[in-house]
Amino acid sequence: MNSNNIILSIAVVALLLAGCSEDPARSEATAFLQSYSEEFQQLAYDSDKASWLANTDIKPEHDSLSVVNDKALAVFVGSKAVIEKARALLEHEDRLTDSQKRQLGKVIRRAAHQPGTIPETVDELIQANTEQNSRLFGFDFVIRDQRGKAKVVSTNEIDQVLVESSDVRERQAAWESSKEVGKTLKDGLENLQRLRNEAAREMGYSSFFELEVADYGMSVAEMMQLMDGFLEELRPLYSELHTWARYELAQRYNQPVPDKLPAHWLPNRWGQNWPGIIDAVDLDGLYTGKSAEWTVKTSEDFYVSLGFDALNQNFWERSDLYPVPEGTERKKNNHASAWHLDYDQDYRSLMSVVPNDRWFRTSHHELGHIYYYIEYTNPDVPLLLRRGANRGYHEGIGDLMAIASSQRPYLQQLGLMQEDAEVDEIQWLLNDALSSGSVVFIPFSAGTMSHFEHDLYEENLPKDKFNQRWWEYVEKYQGIVPPGPRGEEYCDAASKTHINNDPAQYYDYAISCILKFQIHDHIARKILKQDPRNCNYYGNKEVGDFLKSIMRPGASRDWREVLREKTGEDLSVRAMLEYYQPLLEFLKKENEGRTSAIAEL
Ligand code: X8Z
Ligand code: ZN
To answer: Is 1.10.530.10 the CATH classification of the domain at 205-601?
Structure first.
C-alpha cells in the first residue's frame, strides 16, 4: 500500500467513525447537561416547595426554610465548576446541537443570577429577596372610615373601592393606603438593586436588566427599541382613550376636567387597566351568584373543550386558589401566580379568586401557564427547555384565553349573558380596550415599568430619585399624576409586586399583549373564520391543536421562527390596531373639540 493509499484509508476510517460515533464535544455536552439537569431538578423542587410554603403561609420560620433551600440550589447552579464547564463547552459552539446551545445558555444565565464566585453577595441576595417578599405580602393595608377608625383591609377590598366608589375622597384614601407598603420596601429595593447588579456584572453583563433581556436573545437597546415602537404605534389610540376618560371621569366625580388623569380616579392601583368605567357594560354583574370555585372550574373546562386534559388531582389538592377565610391568621401572597415545582407533574396555582371579571380573566391567565407546563413536559423537550418559547409567550397563552373568554358568544353559551342581550358594540369594544392586558396596559408595561426598571439597573438609579423617576414616567407614558406630592419618603414603584419579586421582566407582559392579538387574529380569521371581535373558541379542537403546536416545543425553538411559522408575521401591533380600528374612529368623533394631554413621544 503506498502512502497515498494509507492517507486515503485513514480518511475513510475517520469519515466512517464520524458517521457512526458522535462528535466528542457533543457527547461531553450531553453528559454534562444530563447530570446538571438531574441535580437541578431535585434542588429546584426542594427550593420551590419551601418557597411555596413561604408564599402560602407567610411566617419567619417558613422564610428561613426557604432561604436554606434557595442557598443549596444557588451553590449548585452558580458553582465555579458549572460555570467553567458550560463556558468551555460553548467555546466549541459550532460543534454542538441547537438544543445543547440553548440549554447551555440557560445554564449560564441561571448561574449569573447567583454566581458562586461571589458567595457573600449571593447569600445576601437570597436573604434580601425572601425578606422583601414577606414584607410586601405580610403588610397590613389600613383604611380609615369617616370617623377616623382604622380598619385592616385586603388588596381585594382596596381594588373594590377603586372599581366601584364614586366618592373621590374615599377613592383617594384607598389609593393612598395601597401605596403605604412602598415606604417599607424602599431600602430593600435599593439593596436588591445593588445585589442583583453585582451578580449579573460578575458574569459580564452590563446589569441585571441586560441579564434578563438576554433570555430573548436581544440586547438592551433592542428591547427598549421594541418597547418604544409599541408605545409610538399605539399612542394615537391611547391618546383618544385618555382624552375620553378625562371627560368621562370628571363628569362622574363631578370635578373639572383635568389635564392629566389623577391616579386615584382610576380603577386600578397603578392605572395599568381601567375596568368597570363603562356603565353600559357591567362585566362584574355577570358573576353575581357564581362562586370562586365555579370561576376556576369554568376556566379549566374552557381548555378541556379545546382538547387539553383535565388538571391532575395534585393541582386541586395542593393549589391555594381562594382568599384566606376571614378571621384566619394565615397571611399569603395575594398576587396570582402559577408554579411548575418539579418541571414534571407537580404544577399548582396561587390565587385569591373571588367571583368577578378580574378574577375570571386572571384564572384563565394562570391556567394558561399551567397548560403550557403540561404541554412542554414531554420526552422531546429537555428539562432545561421546559419554558416558554420566550417569557412573553408564557404570559400570552393565558391572556389569549382571557380575551377568548370575554367574547360575547362564549359568555352567552355559559349563560352569563342572555342570547338576545342588546349590546352596544362600540361600548363593548371601549370596555375591552380599557380592560386588563389591552390598550391602556401598553403605556404602563412598555412605558413606565420597563423604563423605570431599565434605569434602576442599567443606570444605577440612586434611591433619592426612585419616586421622582417613577412619576416622571407615569406622567410621560400614562398621562397620570398623583393626587398630591409624592416625595422620596415614598417608593410607589415598589408597591407593584413585580418590581420586588419578578424584576426587570415586565416587558414580558407588553410582548405578550401584542403577541396574543396576533395569535387571536390568526385563530379567529384563519381557523374559526369568525370576526376576531365576536368569536367563540369553545369546543374547537383545531384551535386546541394549533395552541398545542406552539406550546409543546417549549423553549426548544427560536421564538421568532415559531411566530412566523404560526402566523406568517413578525411581532407586530397590526392585529391589535385592526381589532380596535372601529373604536379609534368612534373616539375621534366623541373627542371632537376636546384637547389631548398626551403628547407625541
Ligand atoms: O402578574 C400578572 C399575572 C401573574 S403572571 C397575574 N400579570 C401582570 C400584573 O398583574 O401586573 C398579568 C397581567 C400583568
Ligand atoms: Zn402570568
So the answer is: no
